[in-house]
Protein backbone atom coordinates (compact mmCIF):
# COMPACT_ATOMS: atom_id res chain seq x y z
CA UNK A 1 0.00 0.00 0.00
CA UNK A 2 1.09 3.55 -0.62
CA UNK A 3 -0.33 5.41 2.36
CA UNK A 4 2.01 4.66 5.26
CA UNK A 5 0.77 7.08 7.92
CA UNK A 6 -1.68 9.95 8.25
CA UNK A 7 -2.79 12.28 11.04
CA UNK A 8 -5.53 14.89 11.05
CA UNK A 9 -5.10 15.35 14.86
CA UNK A 10 -8.89 15.05 15.30
CA UNK A 11 -9.22 12.02 17.56
CA UNK A 12 -6.89 12.61 20.52
CA UNK A 13 -5.68 15.25 22.94
CA UNK A 14 -2.29 16.89 23.48
CA UNK A 15 -1.36 14.42 26.22
CA UNK A 16 -2.01 11.54 23.82
CA UNK A 17 0.36 12.56 21.00
CA UNK A 18 2.79 9.75 21.77
CA UNK A 19 0.06 7.17 21.45
CA UNK A 20 0.27 7.77 17.70
CA UNK A 21 3.68 9.38 17.12
CA UNK A 22 6.90 7.65 18.17
CA UNK A 23 8.63 10.37 20.15
CA UNK A 24 9.58 13.97 20.76
CA UNK A 25 12.58 15.50 19.06
CA UNK A 26 15.39 16.48 21.43
CA UNK A 27 13.14 17.14 24.40
CA UNK A 28 11.53 15.31 27.27
CA UNK A 29 8.93 18.05 27.57
CA UNK A 30 5.37 17.60 26.34
CA UNK A 31 4.63 18.70 22.79
CA UNK A 32 2.61 21.79 22.20
CA UNK A 33 -1.14 22.07 21.92
CA UNK A 34 -3.67 20.16 19.88
CA UNK A 35 -6.95 22.02 19.53
CA UNK A 36 -9.71 23.22 17.20
CA UNK A 37 -8.24 26.71 17.01
CA UNK A 38 -5.21 25.28 15.19
CA UNK A 39 -7.15 23.32 12.57
CA UNK A 40 -7.37 24.13 8.90
CA UNK A 41 -10.99 25.04 8.08
CA UNK A 42 -13.65 23.71 7.88
CA UNK A 43 -13.06 22.15 11.30
CA UNK A 44 -11.48 19.41 13.33
CA UNK A 45 -8.25 19.74 15.32
CA UNK A 46 -4.71 20.83 14.51
CA UNK A 47 -1.25 20.87 16.08
CA UNK A 48 0.41 24.06 17.33
CA UNK A 49 4.17 23.46 17.05
CA UNK A 50 6.40 26.03 18.70
CA UNK A 51 8.20 24.77 21.79
CA UNK A 52 11.68 26.23 22.23
CA UNK A 53 13.27 23.16 23.84
CA UNK A 54 11.68 20.70 21.44
CA UNK A 55 12.06 20.08 17.74
CA UNK A 56 8.58 18.66 17.34
CA UNK A 57 7.32 15.10 17.09
CA UNK A 58 8.63 12.24 14.98
CA UNK A 59 7.32 8.96 13.58
CA UNK A 60 9.49 5.90 12.98
CA UNK A 61 8.24 3.55 10.27
CA UNK A 62 8.53 -0.23 10.25
CA UNK A 63 10.00 -0.18 6.72
CA UNK A 64 12.60 1.95 4.98
CA UNK A 65 11.75 4.22 2.05
CA UNK A 66 14.06 5.21 -0.79
CA UNK A 67 11.41 7.34 -2.54
CA UNK A 68 8.39 8.96 -0.92
CA UNK A 69 5.86 11.79 -0.94
CA UNK A 70 4.97 13.72 2.20
CA UNK A 71 2.33 16.42 2.54
CA UNK A 72 0.65 18.58 5.14
CA UNK A 73 -1.20 21.85 5.66
CA UNK A 74 0.70 24.56 7.51
CA UNK A 75 -0.01 28.06 8.79
CA UNK A 76 3.01 30.09 9.92
CA UNK A 77 2.45 32.59 12.68
CA UNK A 78 5.41 34.67 11.51
CA UNK A 79 6.88 35.08 8.03
CA UNK A 80 10.30 35.65 9.62
CA UNK A 81 10.53 32.24 11.29
CA UNK A 82 13.77 30.39 10.59
CA UNK A 83 14.53 26.68 10.73
CA UNK A 84 13.36 23.20 9.82
CA UNK A 85 9.66 22.45 9.48
CA UNK A 86 9.89 18.89 8.12
CA UNK A 87 12.80 16.46 8.49
CA UNK A 88 13.58 12.98 7.16
CA UNK A 89 16.11 10.70 8.85
CA UNK A 90 17.66 7.25 8.84
CA UNK A 91 17.03 5.68 12.25
CA UNK A 92 20.26 3.65 12.09
CA UNK A 93 21.98 6.98 12.75
CA UNK A 94 19.79 7.61 15.78
CA UNK A 95 16.57 9.47 16.39
CA UNK A 96 16.16 12.91 14.78
CA UNK A 97 19.11 15.13 15.47
CA UNK A 98 21.05 17.97 13.91
CA UNK A 99 21.87 16.08 10.70
CA UNK A 100 19.24 15.18 8.11
CA UNK A 101 18.98 13.00 5.06
CA UNK A 102 16.76 15.72 3.58
CA UNK A 103 14.40 18.35 4.97
CA UNK A 104 12.30 21.47 4.41
CA UNK A 105 12.90 24.74 6.21
CA UNK A 106 12.17 28.48 6.18
CA UNK A 107 15.07 30.84 5.55
CA UNK A 108 13.89 33.76 7.71
CA UNK A 109 12.63 35.68 4.68
CA UNK A 110 9.61 33.44 4.11
CA UNK A 111 11.23 31.29 1.39
CA UNK A 112 10.98 27.52 1.47
CA UNK A 113 14.27 25.63 1.20
CA UNK A 114 15.20 22.01 0.57
CA UNK A 115 18.32 21.11 2.52
CA UNK A 116 20.47 18.12 3.43
CA UNK A 117 22.97 17.28 6.14
CA UNK A 118 23.16 19.88 8.89
CA UNK A 119 22.32 22.90 6.74
CA UNK A 120 23.42 22.42 3.10
CA UNK A 121 20.76 24.17 1.01
CA UNK A 122 19.87 22.39 -2.22
CA UNK A 123 17.19 24.78 -3.51
CA UNK A 124 15.28 27.91 -2.47
CA UNK A 125 11.81 28.92 -3.62
CA UNK A 126 11.25 32.16 -5.52
CA UNK A 127 7.85 32.54 -3.87
CA UNK A 128 7.45 33.48 -0.24
CA UNK A 129 4.96 32.43 2.40
CA UNK A 130 2.72 34.90 4.21
CA UNK A 131 1.96 34.74 7.91
CA UNK A 132 -1.44 33.56 9.15
CA UNK A 133 -2.20 31.88 5.82
CA UNK A 134 -2.89 28.19 5.22
CA UNK A 135 -0.68 26.44 2.65
CA UNK A 136 -0.68 22.86 1.45
CA UNK A 137 2.95 21.72 1.12
CA UNK A 138 4.12 18.48 -0.53
CA UNK A 139 7.64 17.17 -1.07
CA UNK A 140 8.52 14.25 -3.34
CA UNK A 141 12.04 12.93 -2.96
CA UNK A 142 14.42 10.05 -3.58
CA UNK A 143 17.34 9.52 -1.19
CA UNK A 144 20.65 8.85 -2.94
CA UNK A 145 24.14 10.29 -2.71
CA UNK A 146 24.38 10.86 -6.48
CA UNK A 147 21.01 10.20 -8.15
CA UNK A 148 18.74 11.79 -5.57
CA UNK A 149 15.69 13.80 -6.59
CA UNK A 150 13.33 16.32 -5.03
CA UNK A 151 10.42 18.58 -5.89
CA UNK A 152 8.22 20.77 -3.68
CA UNK A 153 4.72 21.87 -4.56
CA UNK A 154 2.59 24.36 -2.68
CA UNK A 155 -1.17 24.32 -3.13
CA UNK A 156 -0.66 21.82 -5.92
CA UNK A 157 1.85 23.84 -7.96
CA UNK A 158 5.64 23.83 -8.30
CA UNK A 159 5.68 27.18 -10.13
CA UNK A 160 7.73 29.60 -8.10
CA UNK A 161 8.34 27.00 -5.44
CA UNK A 162 10.90 24.22 -6.00
CA UNK A 163 10.93 22.53 -9.40
CA UNK A 164 11.86 18.89 -9.95
CA UNK A 165 15.60 18.27 -9.68
CA UNK A 166 17.55 15.10 -10.44
CA UNK A 167 21.10 13.86 -10.01
CA UNK A 168 21.43 15.37 -6.53
CA UNK A 169 23.03 14.24 -3.30
CA UNK A 170 20.06 13.92 -0.95
CA UNK A 171 21.83 11.61 1.51
CA UNK A 172 23.05 13.93 4.21
CA UNK A 173 22.95 11.80 7.32
CA UNK A 174 24.36 8.32 6.74
CA UNK A 175 25.61 5.74 4.27
CA UNK A 176 22.08 4.40 3.74
CA UNK A 177 20.08 5.58 0.75
CA UNK A 178 16.73 5.62 2.52
CA UNK A 179 14.73 7.17 5.34
CA UNK A 180 12.50 5.61 7.97
CA UNK A 181 11.81 8.56 10.27
CA UNK A 182 9.84 11.73 9.60
CA UNK A 183 9.66 14.69 11.99
CA UNK A 184 7.32 17.66 12.20
CA UNK A 185 9.47 20.48 13.52
CA UNK A 186 8.80 24.07 14.64
CA UNK A 187 10.67 26.66 12.62
CA UNK A 188 9.75 29.15 15.32
CA UNK A 189 10.64 28.67 18.96
CA UNK A 190 7.87 30.79 20.48
CA UNK A 191 4.09 31.00 20.27
CA UNK A 192 4.56 34.06 18.07
CA UNK A 193 6.84 32.35 15.53
CA UNK A 194 5.54 28.80 15.58
CA UNK A 195 3.12 27.18 13.16
CA UNK A 196 -0.19 25.38 12.99
CA UNK A 197 -0.02 21.97 11.28
CA UNK A 198 -2.89 19.84 10.00
CA UNK A 199 -3.68 16.99 7.58
CA UNK A 200 -0.29 15.25 7.58
CA UNK A 201 0.41 12.18 5.41
CA UNK A 202 3.35 10.10 4.24
CA UNK A 203 3.24 7.98 1.07
CA UNK A 204 5.59 5.23 -0.06
CA UNK A 205 6.66 4.61 -3.66
CA UNK A 206 4.05 1.85 -4.12
CA UNK A 207 0.92 2.34 -6.21
CA UNK A 208 -1.71 3.68 -6.23
CA UNK A 209 -0.85 6.72 -4.09
CA UNK A 210 2.80 7.29 -4.94
CA UNK A 211 2.75 10.77 -6.47
CA UNK A 212 1.64 14.28 -5.54
CA UNK A 213 -1.94 14.26 -4.31
CA UNK A 214 -2.56 18.00 -4.27
CA UNK A 215 -4.39 19.73 -1.42
CA UNK A 216 -5.92 17.24 1.02
CA UNK A 217 -8.17 17.37 4.07
CA UNK A 218 -8.06 14.48 6.53
CA UNK A 219 -11.47 13.82 8.06
CA UNK A 220 -12.08 11.70 11.16
CA UNK A 221 -15.17 9.48 11.17
CA UNK A 222 -16.40 8.13 14.52
CA UNK A 223 -18.79 5.34 15.58
CA UNK A 224 -22.38 6.54 15.25
CA UNK A 225 -24.42 3.45 16.19
CA UNK A 226 -24.17 -0.23 17.12
CA UNK A 227 -23.46 -2.52 14.17
CA UNK A 228 -23.95 -6.20 13.40
CA UNK A 229 -21.46 -7.45 16.03
CA UNK A 230 -21.35 -6.56 19.74
CA UNK A 231 -19.38 -9.47 21.23
CA UNK A 232 -16.90 -7.72 23.51
CA UNK A 233 -17.88 -6.98 27.12
CA UNK A 234 -18.38 -3.37 28.13
CA UNK A 235 -17.20 -2.15 31.53
CA UNK A 236 -19.74 0.66 31.62
CA UNK A 237 -22.61 0.42 29.15
CA UNK A 238 -23.27 -0.95 25.66
CA UNK A 239 -20.39 -1.51 23.25
CA UNK A 240 -21.28 1.61 21.29
CA UNK A 241 -21.69 3.82 24.36
CA UNK A 242 -18.17 2.89 25.48
CA UNK A 243 -16.51 4.07 22.27
CA UNK A 244 -18.67 6.95 21.02
CA UNK A 245 -16.44 9.74 22.31
CA UNK A 246 -14.26 11.72 19.88
CA UNK A 247 -11.22 11.50 22.18
CA UNK A 248 -10.74 8.24 24.07
CA UNK A 249 -11.19 8.33 27.86
CA UNK A 250 -8.85 5.47 28.73
CA UNK A 251 -10.13 3.12 31.42
CA UNK A 252 -13.25 5.15 32.20
CA UNK A 253 -15.29 3.45 29.47
CA UNK A 254 -14.02 0.57 27.37
CA UNK A 255 -14.83 -2.78 25.78
CA UNK A 256 -12.78 -5.87 26.62
CA UNK A 257 -12.36 -9.44 25.44
CA UNK A 258 -10.20 -12.46 26.21
CA UNK A 259 -11.82 -14.60 23.53
CA UNK A 260 -10.30 -15.07 20.10
CA UNK A 261 -12.47 -14.12 17.11
CA UNK A 262 -14.83 -11.87 19.05
CA UNK A 263 -15.86 -8.76 17.07
CA UNK A 264 -17.40 -5.37 17.69
CA UNK A 265 -18.63 -3.45 14.65
CA UNK A 266 -20.29 -0.06 14.33
CA UNK A 267 -22.08 2.15 11.88
CA UNK A 268 -19.85 5.19 11.39
CA UNK A 269 -20.40 8.86 10.65
CA UNK A 270 -21.04 9.51 6.98
CA UNK A 271 -18.30 11.30 5.07
CA UNK A 272 -19.30 13.91 2.47
CA UNK A 273 -19.17 13.32 -1.27
CA UNK A 274 -15.76 13.83 -2.87
CA UNK A 275 -12.56 12.03 -3.79
CA UNK A 276 -11.19 9.76 -1.05
CA UNK A 277 -7.47 9.16 -1.55
CA UNK A 278 -7.23 6.53 1.20
CA UNK A 279 -8.70 5.42 4.53
CA UNK A 280 -6.69 4.80 7.69
CA UNK A 281 -8.23 2.59 10.38
CA UNK A 282 -7.34 3.66 13.93
CA UNK A 283 -7.89 1.64 17.11
CA UNK A 284 -6.90 2.85 20.57
CA UNK A 285 -6.29 -0.21 22.72
CA UNK A 286 -4.09 -1.86 25.32
CA UNK A 287 -3.50 -5.33 26.71
CA UNK A 288 -4.75 -6.06 30.21
CA UNK A 289 -3.39 -8.74 32.54
CA UNK A 290 -2.86 -12.20 31.13
CA UNK A 291 -1.58 -13.61 27.87
CA UNK A 292 -0.34 -11.49 25.00
CA UNK A 293 -3.15 -10.28 22.74
CA UNK A 294 -3.41 -9.37 19.08
CA UNK A 295 -6.13 -7.25 17.51
CA UNK A 296 -7.08 -6.22 13.99
CA UNK A 297 -9.25 -3.61 12.34
CA UNK A 298 -12.44 -5.04 10.88
CA UNK A 299 -14.78 -4.15 8.02
CA UNK A 300 -18.25 -5.55 7.37
CA UNK A 301 -18.93 -4.70 3.76
CA UNK A 302 -22.57 -3.98 2.94
CA UNK A 303 -22.27 -5.82 -0.37
CA UNK A 304 -22.60 -9.47 0.52
CA UNK A 305 -22.43 -8.72 3.38
CA UNK A 306 -18.77 -9.71 3.66
CA UNK A 307 -16.46 -9.61 6.69
CA UNK A 308 -12.87 -8.47 6.14
CA UNK A 309 -10.12 -8.60 8.77
CA UNK A 310 -7.11 -6.30 8.46
CA UNK A 311 -3.51 -6.64 9.68
CA UNK A 312 -2.96 -8.14 13.15
CA UNK A 313 -1.41 -5.82 15.74
CA UNK A 314 0.33 -6.97 18.93
CA UNK A 315 -0.98 -4.93 21.86
CA UNK A 316 1.24 -3.10 24.33
CA UNK A 317 0.52 -2.80 28.04
CA UNK A 318 -0.44 0.87 27.76
CA UNK A 319 -2.82 2.57 25.37
CA UNK A 320 -1.55 3.16 21.86
CA UNK A 321 -3.29 4.16 18.64
CA UNK A 322 -2.83 1.35 16.12
CA UNK A 323 -3.14 2.41 12.49
CA UNK A 324 -3.89 0.37 9.38
CA UNK A 325 -3.92 2.43 6.15
CA UNK A 326 -5.86 1.19 3.12
CA UNK A 327 -5.61 2.83 -0.30
CA UNK A 328 -8.51 0.77 -1.65
CA UNK A 329 -11.53 -0.86 -0.08
CA UNK A 330 -10.47 -4.26 1.37
CA UNK A 331 -13.64 -5.91 0.11
CA UNK A 332 -13.80 -4.71 -3.51
CA UNK A 333 -10.14 -3.68 -4.11
CA UNK A 334 -11.68 -0.60 -5.75
CA UNK A 335 -10.95 3.02 -4.96
CA UNK A 336 -12.83 4.37 -1.97
CA UNK A 337 -15.92 6.48 -2.57
CA UNK A 338 -18.12 8.23 -0.04
CA UNK A 339 -21.01 5.92 -0.94
CA UNK A 340 -18.85 2.85 -0.41
CA UNK A 341 -17.36 4.06 2.86
CA UNK A 342 -20.73 5.12 4.26
CA UNK A 343 -22.39 1.80 3.46
CA UNK A 344 -20.00 -0.35 5.50
CA UNK A 345 -19.53 -1.08 9.20
CA UNK A 346 -16.11 -0.86 10.87
CA UNK A 347 -14.70 -2.12 14.14
CA UNK A 348 -12.15 -4.51 15.60
CA UNK A 349 -11.59 -8.22 16.09
CA UNK A 350 -9.57 -10.06 18.69
CA UNK A 351 -7.24 -12.38 16.82
CA UNK A 352 -5.65 -14.17 19.75
Walk me through what this model shows.
- The two termini are 25 Å apart.
- This protein has 352 residues and is mostly beta strands.
- It contains 2 helices and 24 strands.
- The radius of gyration is 21 Å and the shape is elongated.
- The strands form 5 sheets. Strands 1, 3, 4, 6, 11, 12, 13 and 15 form an 8-stranded antiparallel beta sheet that branches. A 7-stranded antiparallel beta sheet has the order 2-5-14-7-8-9-10, with no helix packed on it. It has a 5-stranded antiparallel beta sheet with strand order 16-19-24-21-22.
- The protein has 2 domains: 3-203, Jelly Rolls (Sandwich); 223-350, Sandwich (Jelly Rolls), CATH 2.60.120.
- 3% of the residues lie in helices and 46% in strands.
- The mean pLDDT is 93.
Short structural summary:
This protein is 3% helix and 46% strand. By secondary structure, the protein is mainly beta. The protein folds into 2 domains: 3-203, Jelly Rolls; 223-350, Jelly Rolls.
* Overall tally of structural domains: 2
Shape: elongated
Second rung of CATH, namely the architecture of the largest domain: Sandwich
Cα radius of gyration in angstroms: 21 Å
Mean pLDDT over all positions: 93
Order of helices and strands: EEEEEEEEEEEEEEEEEHEEEEEEHE
Low-pLDDT stretches: none
CATH third-level topology of the largest domain: Jelly Rolls
Helix content range of the residues, please? under 10%
Query: Structural class of the helix and strand makeup?
Result: mainly beta
Tell me the major beta sheet: 8 strands, antiparallel
Per DSSP E runs of 2 or more residues, the count of β-strands stands at 24
- The amount of beta strand, in percent, is over 45%
Span of the ends, CA to CA: 25 Å
Amino acid sequence: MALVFADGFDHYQTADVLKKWTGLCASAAAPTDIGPEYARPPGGMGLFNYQAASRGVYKTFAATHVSFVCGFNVNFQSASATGAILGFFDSSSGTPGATYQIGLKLDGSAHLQVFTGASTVLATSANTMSASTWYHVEIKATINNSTGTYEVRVNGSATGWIAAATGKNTRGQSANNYIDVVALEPAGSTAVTGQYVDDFYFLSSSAPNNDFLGPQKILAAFPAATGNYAQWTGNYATNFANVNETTADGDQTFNQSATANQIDSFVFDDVPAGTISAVQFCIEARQDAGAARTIAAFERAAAGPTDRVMTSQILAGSYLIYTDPRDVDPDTSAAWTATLFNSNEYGYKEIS
